[in-house]
């Protein structure tokens, strides 16, 4: 019965705890924080006492916690594609805004960081690879507020 429960609870991952111990955990969701870091909602299955009218017995109790992505290692064979994901679209931390310019010599697009307050809500999310290419494109200008060109081109803030 325990192996049946184990299979239904997945996907599983290995988590390195703050004291360097490793623990297999159930991954229930992932969230991208406003600073761009990924965090995973996990459940550690810990022992617990289950009391009934016939006495006490050992049971398993899921205990929820959140872990930064860098502390988790995928377990081969586990499928993580169905995990609920919140925050920015995975890998899309940049926004491309079309500018309404009437001169060919002016930039036609502006590149923003995803959390830039200057970005148009209708701006298109783009991957880091695309944003890196656009940061070098003469038809795209970087936002002067959020300065996406600095991390994309390796410049210091």
Q: What Rg do the Cα atoms give?
A: 23 Å
Give a quick account of the main beta sheet: strands, pairing sense, barrel closure. Answer: 6 strands, mixed
Q: How many β-strand stretches?
A: 10
What is the N-to-C succession of helices and strands?
HEEEEEEEEEHEH
Beta fraction? 35-45%
Helix content estimate: 10-25%
Residue-averaged pLDDT: 83
| Overall tally of structural domains | 2
Q: N- to C-terminal separation? A: 56 Å
The low-pLDDT segments are: none
What distinguishing features does this structure have?
mainly beta; 4-stranded mixed β-sheet; 42% strand
Molecular structure report:
This protein has 2 domains: 2-86, no CATH class; 94-152, no CATH class. It is built from 3 helices and 10 strands, in the order αβββββββββαβα. It has 157 residues and is mainly beta. The strands form 2 sheets. Strands 1, 2, 3, 4, 5 and 6 form a 6-stranded mixed beta sheet that branches. The chain has helices at residues 2-9, 128-134, 149-152; strands at 12-16, 22-32, 38-52, 55-68, 72-74, 85-86, 94-98, 109-113, 124-126, 140-142. The mean pLDDT is 83. 12% of the residues lie in helices and 42% in strands. It is elongated and about 85 Å long.
């Amino acid at each position: 019965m325990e192996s049946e429960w184990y299979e239904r609870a997945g996907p599983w991952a290995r988590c390195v705890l703050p004291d360097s111990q490793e623990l297999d955990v159930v991954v229930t969701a992932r969230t991208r924080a406003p600073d761009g870091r990924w965090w995973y909602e996990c459940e550690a299955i810990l022992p617990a006492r289950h009391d009934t009218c016939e006495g006490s017995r050992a049971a398993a109790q899921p205990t929820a916690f959140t872990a930064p992505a860098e502390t988790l290692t995928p377990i081969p064979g586990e499928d993580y594609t169905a995990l609920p994901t919140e925050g920015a679209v995975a890998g899309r931390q940049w926004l491309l805004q079309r500018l309404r310019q009437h001169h060919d010599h002016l930039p036609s697009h502006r590149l923003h960081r995803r959390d830039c307050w200057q970005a148009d809500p209708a701006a298109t999310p783009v991957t880091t690879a695309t944003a890196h290419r656009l940061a070098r494109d003469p038809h795209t200008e970087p936002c002067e507020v959020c300065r996406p060109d600095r991390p994309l081109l390796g410049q210091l803030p």
